[in-house]
Amino acid sequence: MSFFNRNKERIIVTAIAIILIVLIGVTSTERMALSKIEMVIGNVLTPIGKVSNSIGKNISSFFAGVKNIGNLKEENEGLKKQVAKLEEENRSYLNIIGKTDYLKNEAKILEKTSFKLTSAQVVGKEPGNWFDRFTIDKGIKDGIKKGSTVVQGIEIEQNTIVEGVVGRIADVGDNWAKVIAIVDETNSIAFINLRTQDSGVISGSLDGQVTGYFFDNKADVIKGDKLFTSGLGGTFAKDIYIGEVDEVIDAEEELMKKITVKPAVNFKKLYKVFIID
User: What pairs with residue 258 in β-bridges?
Assistant: First the structure.
């Protein structure tokens, strides 16, 4: 084996060391121009430096982007929470606005009523468009009894609030009760016409319409007459507002005067009611 082959690695290392010493010596003094060797080495190393610098910048930008993504995620979560809070507040405001008339009537009826009233929330209803049969959150523990009259505060005239009949308690448990409304076909109410004191009976129907008749087929009745419970039969408390006469039908062949009634209570919207003790 030749001398070069035996000492190949040592020769290469020695040559590189000599070249580096020469370069250090050449570049250690101030000169106006670079040597050819420096130019060659510079031409080789400059692109490599640019690539290395570019890679370094890209890596820095990548990790900065990752950090920004984390910050954006936190900000996004914070914004979602703020939006959810604002939506909840908006629902609360709309809920209050939607119940403004009811809340006003409720406050006034509690001030002026001569009855002992127990308030209750409506917590359920049977299928259908009407609150003809529904459940409230008060029961035996609250003094609620089967057969009690259920009412709501109603504005009968401007700034005149009275008890409007909703229905009656049909069944009662420890902390719940079921109400059958006057629009239900099983309910019948004896009434009196406030204007003329003529009396009769009304009842509900499957379509939520309230109809009835006067005992006297010659009774004086006109559209808009106000009807109140008469207390006859003891099914409902006396002097509770029912609603207005909406239509008068003379049924001479049946020897009676029929009417349709517009209930004072909106049976498509019921939130809270009162039970007369």
Answer: 213, 249
pLDDT tens-digit profile of 82-117? 666 655 545 544 444 445 565 677 778 888 888 999
Task: Report the alpha-carbon distance of residue 3 to residue 73 in Å, rounded.
Answer: 67
Does residue 44 carry a pLDDT above 60?
no
Kindly report whether the global pTM for this prediction surpasses the value 0.85.
Answer: no
Which residues, 6+ apart, have CB-to-CB distance to 179 below 8 Å? 133, 134, 135, 136, 150, 166, 167, 168, 169, 170, 273
Q: What angle do CA 252, 236, 275 make, to 5 degrees?
A: 145
Cα 85 to chain centroid, rounded: 12
CA–CA distance, 205 with 210 (Å, rounded to integer): 6
More confidently predicted of 52 and 261: 261
- List all residues 6 or more positions away from 28 whose beta carbon is below 8 Å from its beta carbon: none
pLDDT of 199 over the 60 cut: yes
Average pLDDT for 134-139: 98
Nearest Cα to 134, choosing from 272, 236, 228, 235?
272
Question: Could you tell me if 136 and 204 are in contact, meaning their C-beta atoms sit under 8 angstroms apart?
Answer: no
To the nearest 10 degrees (0 to 180), the angle between helices 36-98 and 100-112 is 40
Would you give the DSSP letter of residue 208? S
pLDDT of residue 85: 61
Q: What is residue 74's three-state secondary structure? A: helix
Query: Are 118 and 134 in contact, with CB atoms under 8 Å apart?
Result: no
Kindly compute the dihedral angle of the four CA atoms of residues 176, 181, 184, 188, in this order, to the nearest 10 degrees.
120
